[in-house]
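Subject: sequence -> structure tokens, single chain

Hey, anyone have a minute? Need the predicted structure for the following. Not urgent.
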Amino acid sequence: MPGFLVHVGAQVFCAHAGQATPTVPNPRVTVGGQPTVVMTTPYVVAGCTLPPPPAANGPCVTAQWFSGTTRVFSNGQPLLVQSSQAVCAPSGTPLIIAATQTRVSAI
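Reply:
Had a minute. Here:
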């Protein structure tokens, strides 16, 4: 699905308001002076409010993306766009891309 490219300064949260950040930026492609993120990059989550067992199965600690661009690649890897999907571990809930740059889009 098309969307705006995700960069390291994008606001990404878990479903419980935890801040998610990429572990490895992609300096090969930049937007607005900031590196983009490829789909294979894991994210770490801090500040998740989901309670630990036995009340729930949280908090979210990491997240992995499973969808990205289909026509635009960097170093042979798909890039993340605003419509990309991810799942958090151990909760199994999604990441939410709340805000990103709005100048460069990709399919």
